[in-house]
Recover the amino acids of this structure.
């Protein structure tokens, strides 16, 4: 046998192994991890480009959020970019339609939205109740519209407009973050790995995305990871982004616009319906970061995640299940079964 035959065999074997690292031999497609990395890399191109033009100033310290039509337009534009990148990845990496991303108007999609709004509003009420009972929070009417036992009509109109703008902005912000953290990258990894892998990985990235918010602590970061798991469970329960998006924006809006609690360290809006003082028990209330940095939110998020996981009234719409089976050939609902 010629001396170089073994070397040729070793090189060929190494090539096969390298190829299998990139390509799944069962589907003859890029493995899900590489698909997720391509999505993230393309998604970050505008940020990388702008980083050469705009010098970063480090951790954000200003807690006042720019609630303006310009910011609303910016979120709408960012959603457009994420949807475009998602479509490209779905079409050219997996031959799937954009509807598989999770915003399809199936029968009953609005019920998932209403369920998300109701559950999340109840959760924030529970958080505030725990904070009040724990002596860490006191809730009062905003003097902008309630003065000396009477309603100030002009103040009420100004506050209502700001609250409405906050709702629009937070709906867009919630949809944007769900597309990032429970959208294509999360879903494509589900198609190639156990559910625990994308849940943990994208929840950690979700927390990292809030790392530079003002008032951030290790406690708030842990809570954000738990919130990522909560929202991922909501997606897996329905195989739709409507439910987690409704949970997400209602949580933020009820906390910020209704109770006047900072949303991840940001005042959204500046003039809420009620004012909630953080009190002295920062471990319970989260202090300047808001409830997401305190133990009250930890308790409620954990309980809510378990309840959503076990709720019989929540499930995958038949239309969504059929489309997933037809397009991917897998029954992904089996990856999270109560």
């Amino acid at each position: 046998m010629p001396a170089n035959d073994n070397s040729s065999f070793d090189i060929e074997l190494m090539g096969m192994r390298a190829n299998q690292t990139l390509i799944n031999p069962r589907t003859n497609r890029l493995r899900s991890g590489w698909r997720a990395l391509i999505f993230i890399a393309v998604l970050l191109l505008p940020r990388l480009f702008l980083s050469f033009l705009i010098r970063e100033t480090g951790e954000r310290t200003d807690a006042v959020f720019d609630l303006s039509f310009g910011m609303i337009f910016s979120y709408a534009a960012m959603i457009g970019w994420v949807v475009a990148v998602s479509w490209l990845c779905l079409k050219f990496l997996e031959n799937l339609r954009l509807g598989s991303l999770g915003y399809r108007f199936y029968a009953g999609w609005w019920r998932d939205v209403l369920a998300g709004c109701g559950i999340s509003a109840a959760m924030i009420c529970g958080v505030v109740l725990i904070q009040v009972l724990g002596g860490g929070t006191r809730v009062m009417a905003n003097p902008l519209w309630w003065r000396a036992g009477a309603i100030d009509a002009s103040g009420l109109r100004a506050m209502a407009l700001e609250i409405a703008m906050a709702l629009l902005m937070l709906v867009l912000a919630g949809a944007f973050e769900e597309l990032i953290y429970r959208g294509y990258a999360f879903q494509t990894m589900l198609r190639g790995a156990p559910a625990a892998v994308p849940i943990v990985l994208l929840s950690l990235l979700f927390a990292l995305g809030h790392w530079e918010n003002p008032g951030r602590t290790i406690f708030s970061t842990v809570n954000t990871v738990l919130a990522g798991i909560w929202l991922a469970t909501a997606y897996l329960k329905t195989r739709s982004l409507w439910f987690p998006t409704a949970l997400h924006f209602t949580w933020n809006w009820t906390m910020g616009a209704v109770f006047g609690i900072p949303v991840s360290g940001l005042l959204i809006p500046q003039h809420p319906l009620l004012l909630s003082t953080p009190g002295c028990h920062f471990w319970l209330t989260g202090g300047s970061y808001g409830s997401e940095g305190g133990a009250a939110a930890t308790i409620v998020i954990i309980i809510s995640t378990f309840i959503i996981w076990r709720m019989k009234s929540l499930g995958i719409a038949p239309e969504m299940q059929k489309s997933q089976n037809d397009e991917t050939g897998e029954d992904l609902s089996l990856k999270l079964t109560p």
In short: The longest helix spans residues 153-181. Residues 237 and 319 are 14 Å apart (CA to CA). The beta strands are 23-24, 29-30, 138-141, 146-147, 150-151, 274-277. The first strand starts at residue 23 and ends at 24.
